What does this fold into?
Amino acid sequence: MGKINISDSLILPCGATIKNRIGKSAMSENMGSKGFVSNDFFQTLYERWADGGTGLLITGNVMVDQRALGEARNVVIEKGISDPSLKSWAEVGKKNHTQIWVQLNHPGKQSPKFLSKVPVAPSAIPLKKPLSRVFNTPRALSDLEIIEIIERFAYAAKVCKESGFTGVQIHGAHGYLVSQFLSPTHNQRTDKWGGSIENRMRFVSEIYQSIRREVGAQFPISIKLNSADFQKGGFSKEDSMKVVQHLSELGMDLIEISGGTYETPVMTGTKVKESTKAREAYFMDYCEEVRKIVKTPLMLTGGFRSSQGMNEALSSGVCDMVGIARSLAINPDFSNELLSGKDVKSLVKPLSTGFPFLDRTFPLEIVWYTDQLHLMGKGQDPNIKRSPLRSVLSMILELGMSAVKKVRG
It folds into this structure.
């Protein structure tokens, strides 16, 4: 058998097939309609991507509780919300034999002040400054509330399957609730949900098992997991390895490797060593170690910019899929170009408003790329010449209006 490359298909443990080795990693669209439902914008955007050649499309985070939003215009799947547009979204996402999976999420304490007066978390520990200016101090979840959130993930996954999506992904990275439970910095509980790594991973383990009971053995379940959260005393590489091994043994179909949190945003590539950039993948070293202990397919996300870098990672056996996100936000046909054999390179480059204070204060990488998704949702092309300053000012204006109106949908 020859070396694996990006055009090869991948059969998952559950039996599902992904037509090639390119996965669109989740980017939050933040363009839901009132009532937390999806709309035509999602259909237009995902049809564009399904036509663009990517084998696996993972949606932006869909929340499991309307009381816990990461952004004002998140889509929410929960009991009591009827969202007929979900079926149309799934349908267009499956064009050209594409897999479309819904990323399910709960933000925990990472729900902004104007959306959550008192957010919830494993423990009542605030985020560090300057993020504490944006997010309120949370209260600790009760045992019953934890069980209810687990049930919410399972219910949302069931709705995704019934709506025609071909899989789901648990968001266990980037400092959201699952990630908070895993981290000893954020989880200082003394009950069965905290303390040892075995206890801290109970939450994600129960989520996986509850989802599996709802969707059956042949429906893909994935997780996005941090290699580490890169904080002293936080979720370590050793902890992460134990979690990966446990989830692999339980039957997870695909593990996406990322890293960092809002407090230490290494996933955006802002503090990555030059030697790492040369290999393209930010978390390659970690993936190499994981590969030695699990057989579960691994998707490595963060830093890939060229077909050469992707094919080298795949042929080395380090990962089974490559995850790209920002490249597809500015060129929805990037996957087709990569698969054609052309020597294409991503147009992703560092962004700046020209004002260091604004660059430090606002999540520029998220804001500017979200604007590109909104353009495609309206049927337009991405605009790589769009001013980052304009994106930030638009965000400030919208947040101001949202805070005044207390918009929650």
